[in-house]
Model the fold of this input.
Amino acid sequence: VILGPLLDDDPGTSGTIVQRMLDGGTPMLPRIWVDVVDVRDVAALHVAAMTAQAAGGHRFIAADRPMSFREMTDILRAAFPDRAGKIPRYQAPDWLMRFAALFNGTARDSLAELGPVKRTDTGPARALLGRPFVPAEDAAIAMARGLIDNRLV
Done:
């Protein structure tokens, strides 16, 4: 997922995940892990890929690290204690997600992501960027702050 500061009032697909966590739209968390990258790193990598001769013809997977939805909500709860009551605390068991998928399209779309962490090799992107990625925690907090500042939650 691509998180970080917003430029306008459109949170995008990734931002909607954080938005639903903040506004109480997600009652329980699926056992899902996502690779988190900050939008500023994505922009910097695009520039680097266009200007570095060696980047031609290559793909670069960009992410600071994998983060579970549960960990993300823990971070958001600590960063925004005034909103902690709406941020989900409990993780839904996989069987409950599979049952919910029978009736809910969002749950159904998430089924393939349930389970263990999927590891990706971000070494080439880190080398191209030439610096560490923005920490996933900071990207999530920046996204939440943008949602709050733009009155989207």
Notes: Helices lie at 12-22, 39-51, 69-79, 94-100, 105-110, 123-129, 136-149. The first helix runs from residue 12 to 22.
